[in-house]
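job 3f2a | input accepted
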Amino acid sequence: MRGVIQIFLNTGGSFRWVVLACVLLGTVADGIGIASMVPLITVALQGNVGADSGISAAVTRALAIIGVEPKLGPLLVLVVGAITAKALLTLLTLRTINYAVSDVAANVRRRLVKSVLQVKWAYFARQPIGRLANAVSLDSSRSAEAFSLAANFIATSLQALIYVVIALYASWQIAVFAVVAGLALVAALQPFVRLTKVWSRRQRRRTEELVMLTTDTLSSIKPLRAMSRQGHLEGFFDEKVDKLRRALRRQALSKYVMKALREPLSAIVLASAFYIAYGRFEWPLPELIVMGVLFRRLLGAIGDAQEQLQSAVNVEASYWAVHRLIEEAEEQREELRGGREPTLHRSIQLADVSFNFGDKPVLERFSMEARAGELTVLSGASGGGKTTITDLILGLHEPQSGQVLLDGVPLPEVDLHRWRAMVGYVPQELGLFHDTVLANVTLGDPMIAEAAVIRALELAGAWDFVQALPEGLATSVGERGARLSGGQRQRIALARALVLEPKLLILDEVSSALDPETEAEICANIRAIAGQRTIIAITHRQIWIDVADRVYHVGTEEVE
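job 3f2a | predicted structure (560 res):
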């Protein structure tokens, strides 16, 4: 229960107080309507309102305070008005909760994506993509649902409390009996709430495992099918799905058993109350009817609150999971130290740089210089540290010793955000969005003109094939660019890097999937723009080595 209350207090902004105010006013209106039924039924049955019992006297005094005479007409107006007021306030409550739910889901997703996009690269590289996908889609939606259910739980609990106050005003005996009966009902059904919490956590964990497996599988579906290895994964999927199915079954069972037991237990309590009030205390019929309605409302509110608590507990795990991920990401946020304006007029230097991945040394006292306006090639065996060098230049990793210098300025003193904005980068592992060619080049930036896109596509050797596509720039490239060939995907990625005319262009095996003719064309285009841009190319292709201004064979001391 504490976790659900924290969800309500931590989420929803000003909406949550509007919800409480509406519930408070609505329940008071409902209480006035119920209390007004005592004199109303008495008038209908007897023709006048007596003051023989404490309940009738209390209600009569309350009506006098608000200026309502205990006559048929005013009482009917009061009852109808109270019911109408409660209905309108209930509508406002539900509308407010719905608005809050929409805002909660949007805010959680914004915070999550913003936090993840700003983490240190080393942290991001360790995270399964499926975990992040599950958090953005399922956990974020369930976080909003958790707030909705928590708000409903708080609202219904507040209703029950107000009904207790109304009952105390009318008859402390029936109020005490109702509270005791309600608490007994809660205690009898509470084990099912705890079971729901246990199985909801397990269900969420199984769902996340399944999403991670699905994400990893779909990203490798082509080689899996090409080697006919998907059959082995089907068994793995079956195992994950079966575990999720069992968790969902137990989760649903605890929910429905509690729901099924609630009605007979409530009936037993109501029958006991009726027997005591009518058989032992001989309450008048009008008061018995009204107190029965109030008692039923109170028990119903307590039961509804417990069901809403169970439903909130059912999705509580997702709420805390996504918020833990946000906090984790914020703790791992990259610190963009330094504020000096970056420049690249002379060179980029690595001076005696050493870098380890864990205990594994990748670079040891490595030095190099990429001069401004030149094409520098990094060549060497796979795993030798070529990509690590560019990661160090971009500030994605920090060396254990040595320095990275921009025009003689240590990289930690430079504004990293501005520095990276001066870079065009084409990674070895291409990542195209399931969107149009235009969107993949501009990355959704409306400030990039179509003419600049076409120029970048021409430099990347892609404009001819883009023009031939069914819808040209508006053609969708498919999932991860699946509708294009490997070489076409590489050229689109190269155009993306070139479109903002970067000062530094980093190419990681950019021509590995190209035919010799296209590779020669792109190599010539890149060589032609080298005077205006500094270019660092990671490649083992001889054509790039032949046109380079300087070549570093990483893993050896050789420099050309």
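job 3f2a | The CA atoms of residues 354 and 363 lie 5 Å apart.
job 3f2a | closed
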